[in-house]
From TrEMBL:
Gene3D superfamilies: NAD(P)-binding Rossmann-like Domain. InterPro entries: CoA-bd, NAD(P)-bd_dom_sf. SUPFAM superfamilies: NAD(P)-binding Rossmann-fold domains. It comes from the Bacteria. It comes from Planotetraspora thailandica. Residues 14-107 form the CoA-binding domain. This is CoA-binding protein. Pfam families: CoA_binding_2.
């Protein structure tokens, strides 16, 4: 995988400086990774925005059916969909004017990642926000 998708400076900056994370694929099931990661980041002061076709309220935050419906600027889009759907979400993040996309462990789409980089977004791929938080906050 391209080293640009695991740049420690980008990871550190996104964890430390971002305010609003849209979690695509976030539903209300606490056993799911998206829920756990959104909860962790919310507990660390980030605003989370659930993006899921059901548009449910999750973790006390209003959900939206798609990124284009989110009415506030998005710093980071967490792509909690299978890898074969990641490119579509990355394109939606670009169109929505997000600042970055974060593809968690085992969600890899280098072609979509390069599209995001070319569009000026930061990209983190195949990394867990919770693990990176534990590692990078101490640095």
């Amino acid at each position: 995988m391209d080293d640009r998708f695991a740049d420690l400076r980008v990871i550190r900056r996104l964890l430390n400086e971002s305010k609003t994370w849209a979690f695509v694929g976030l539903g209300d099931d606490p056993s799911r990774t998206a829920y756990q990661q959104a909860n962790l980041l919310q507990n660390r002061g980030k605003r989370i925005i659930p993006v899921h076709p059901a548009a449910k309220t999750v973790l006390g935050e209003q959900g939206y059916a798609k990124l284009a419906d989110v009415p506030v600027p998005i710093d980071v889009v967490g792509v909690y969909r299978r890898a074969e759907f990641a490119g579509e979400v990355v394109d939606e993040a670009i169109a929505a004017g997000a600042g970055a996309v974060w593809l968690p462990l085992d969600v890899i789409d280098e072609v979509a990642g390069r599209r995001a980089l070319d569009a000026g977004l930061d990209v983190v791929m195949d990394r867990c926000p919770g693990v990176e938080w534990a590692l990078r906050r101490a640095e």
